[in-house]
Specification:
Helix content is about 0%, strand content about 45%. It has about 120 residues and is mainly β. Strands 1, 2, 3, 4, 5, 6, 7, 8 and 9 form a 9-stranded antiparallel β-sheet that branches. InterPro entries: ChrR-like_cupin_dom, RmlC-like_jellyroll, RmlC_Cupin_sf.
Length: about 120
């Protein structure tokens, strides 16, 4: 199975839903996903005051590209703050996070598997 075909549509019509883990202030708007492979395109939202420390350091088996649309978050492991306009490209196995966000943050993410 692959991601579904979508012509342009208002992304705001897709509801935010809770992310995996135990941090209720972290939600996602899944724009397209392949349920079999786990790849997805999403908007990730950190509500003001979010702390993802309970979810720990993240590592996954797919590529992930992230662009910060609004706000900022602080990577507690790296000791760095990233804000709107910053971009990351993470290969499978790369450790990242956890993060805190005082003001809130909105990111656009694409996850995929390399052949």
């Amino acid at each position: 199975m692959a991601k579904p075909e979508h012509e342009f549509f208002p992304a705001k019509t897709v509801e935010f839903t809770p992310c995996a883990g135990v941090v209720p202030q972290l939600t996602e708007r899944i724009l397209a996903a392949d349920g079999d492979s786990g790849v997805a395109t999403r908007i990730l939202r950190f509500e003001p005051g979010t702390d993802t420390t309970p979810n720990g350091v993240q590592v996954h088996d797919f590529w992930e590209e992230v662009y910060i649309l609004e706000g900022s978050f602080h990577d507690t492991r790296l000791g760095k703050t990233f804000s709107a306009g910053d971009y990351a490209c993470r290969p499978p196995g790369m450790e990242h996070g956890p993060w805190t966000s005082e003001e809130g943050c909105l990111t656009f993410e694409v996850r995929y598997r390399a052949s």
